[in-house]
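On clarity, I found the account of how folds are encoded harder to follow than it need be. Since the whole study asks how a given chain folds, the encoding of that fold should be made plain. For illustration, here is how one protein appears when written out as sequence plus structure tokens:
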Amino acid sequence: MEHDALHERARKGVNPVIYRIVRFFFVPFFLTYFRLERIDRENIPREGAAIVAANHRSFLDPFVICAMTHGRPMYYVAKKELFNKRGRFGRFQAFVLNSLGAFPVDRGAGDASTIATAKQILDRGDIVLIFPEGTRIRPGALGKAHKGVGRLALESGAPVIPVAVIGTEAVRKGWRIRPHKVRIRVGRPIQFPHVPDAKPQLAATVTDRIWPCVMLQWEWLGGMPPVRRAAVIGAGSWGTSLAVGLARAGYHVDLGTRTQEQADALSAERVNPHYLPGVELPVNVHIARASTLELGGHDLVCLAVPARALPAVMAAHGDRIPHRAGLLVLSKGLVAPLGTVPSAFVAERSRSRAIAVLGGPAHAAEAIGTGASVILASSDRAFARQLGEVLRTVGLDVALSADVTGVELAGCAKNVAVLAASAAAGVGPNAAGSVAGKLFAELEALAVSRGGRPETFAGLAGTGDLVATLIEPASRNRRAGELLFQGVEREQIPVQLGHACEALDTVPLLAEVALAEGVKAPTLTALTALVEGRTDPAQWAAKVTAPQSKSGPRPVRAA
């Protein structure tokens, strides 16, 4: 069926027989099977023209929203591909959809026929449903609205009714329709002046007034809020860099420091010379002592502190992180005394709706200056998608993963391997390469035993980060390994570095975890003895390439 004929039928009206039959069966089905909750339904007018602007999560959205209209037909735009399918079934689908009020749109092409059809429907006093996002957005927060709804509101003069629907994204699993709770909330009508020939800029401005009203209904229903305001706890290199990047991207950022003196100095100088020299803090970065931050209004909380500092940070802030906020954990290492991965430690001590961790080769200052490729891992797909978009606006190349365990343990493996390789380099490159490779294999086995994926170690979070850290002259873990080989005691290394060294804390904890998991880790055990001062550095490095007994590590599996 040609698109012109579809538009012509929609301009004449729905097929009353098909519409009444479908409504007779579908509305009771929605009310019972989906337990459809219709909130503020009275804001849908019983007569007169209106534009319903709604978010879009599922192919069911037009049908469940039509259940709000007191029996009135609701006409809606649908992508042209739904009407282009060939064969008898394709023609039947196009006929039914068109009979129920659907008419095609060529998305992204400024379809004049679609606007003309919608205006004619509104002129005769009917309702047009439009999805300003332009396509289904799932999962995560709402997408961005296109200016078409603003143009239609201006050129028709019809009131716009903001509507949000939640739950339909979880209804479908393959071809199966599951009985999932669906809720719809209707906002009050918004009226704009009638402008017969609206310019694109004016249409975009009106859209920017409409869409927040839809977002308001969405958040009232419990939908994921967009990230507007972020808190970064920890003003080290990564904390400061992330705060700068988020602020440059337009977010309001609260940067929490450990002491009041540090907060006062950063506020006065607007530069963090110790961790990020030469980079000015934007005006939309508010600096305060972390303990004074009110976290209740933040959409994103970033924990940019070493793993050893997490217990104190969560004791101070865990109860104050709101449920509506997402948490990004940048700590690399394990948390004493049980060797807990940071994400699990934080999850047990906060009410945050979702948690993500960051891995990959991303030196903090360089990441903000010239970009970096990172891997973002979260078990919550919606939060991962949303946060990935936020970090892309910061200028990072972001890959998403659900392997939280793998990413965190790969970060541990990277730090430990760099520490060991730089310590063994005092003997030679063969020893350095051997110890790094053996440690990586042992820690990969540990990760797999805990549900991690081997491919994570082969990607950005593992080998990518390892290479970046090894060639970075200012790497703390690399320098710590060199000092370790020189015989400097473990407690004195952070003093000489002027920074904490995660690997020194992580090695003994990893050895205990491997022992508890039953994972053979002789190289890790030997490194633990070195870190704790129970073996001579030169003898340790010399043994790395010595022939292993039969009780040593298993042969590497063929690919």
Notes: The longest helix spans residues 200-220. The mean pLDDT is 90. The longest strand covers residues 160-166. The radius of gyration is 29 Å.
